[in-house]
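To whoever is on call:

I kicked off a structure prediction for a single chain this morning and the downstream step that reads the tokens threw a length-mismatch warning. I double-checked the sequence; it's 405 residues and nothing unusual in it as far as I can see. Pasting both halves so you can look.
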Amino acid sequence: METVSKIDSRKENKIIFICWLAYTAAYVGRLNFNASIVAIISDLGVTKADAGLVSSFFFFAYGAGQLINGILSKKYNAKIMIFLSLIISAVMNVLMPICGDISLMKFIWMGNGIVQSVLWSTLIKTLSDFVSNKKLPKAILAMSTTVAIGTLVAYGISSLSVRFGTWKIVFYVASIVLVVSAIIWFTLFGINPKKVIEIEEQKSEKVKMGRVVLLALFITAFAGIANGFIKDGINTWVPSVLYEEFGISQSFSILLTLLLPMVSTLGAAIAKKVHEKIPSHAAMNFIFYIFSALLCGGILLSLKLHSIVAIMICFICVACGMSMINNVITSMFALDYRRLLNAGFAAGLLNTFCYIGSTVTSYTLGAVSQARGWNAVFIIMLAVCVVAAVICLAGIISERKMKEK
């Protein structure tokens, strides 16, 4: 039997790379709508609430699918399922600009959410199966950068598309990225790569610590709702805030939004360093949520002072904080506890709860901004951060019980 010590390091690196590539490409093929939302609203003559509903349809389908696929991921042929998910997502991206009708776009994007919901839990299960404990920190760090880099690429392409052509181009480019990534995944995955074999003693460990671990899992999941709400709320509506409050052009507002994922990439490295000093996932999230709540207060002050420099600094720092929290919830927790929980199930469940927040944020914040203005939006975000911090305190208590066990 193959053991952890005999795992080929080059094969592990290859698995980490193709998992990273697949999920980064998926972000390009899902965030391109949010990146272009200002131009789409203007071109199609729809309300912010109507446009936000398209994102909400995606997030609902993706979040619900995460739970189902998290349970089923251990039965999937990862090579085939990831390949098909990326290819079908490419087709959905092509259909969006061809359709051009906001009422139909909701259902196309919902279909995209369904097929992309296969990805995260299956990829985390793949890393759990084929990457050793020695390489696991590298895998966590790599996967935590997918959000930031995928966002950077999606918003970068969107900015260029709006500036030099039409928002429709970004969907065609995303479909190409998805197809190329699918081909690379299928080619490099190989035929029946060897799995990392876990020691038998871990089975009894799962029985003894099951209840406490599950409690920690569900507390982390509920904290994830706030993460999805803030993270996707910021990504979706920052261009609109800059466009409406500061009179910046559509293309330049999207370009400025690129600063968020550029700095958020550092969040993954920061979270890794913090985790070395603070092993508790709940304690890390508590600190990051308090930090983000203060920054939401800074956004409100910046709006009052009408300072674009101050508000951009606050937006960037909130995005970085949400990137760190997302890394802890969807990557670190699932892989750190892979000996006690099915990593695919844990990843799927946690991502489901994150996308509950994402589902609510696009439509809700669009409607609130239209009815009450942007101040009301960021008051809500501040309150959500505070509630999440309180939930994380409960998580700290459950983790202490785990240590006692």
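Update from on-call: the warning came from a stale cache, not from the record. Cleared it. Sanity check on the structure: The chain has 16 helices and no strands.
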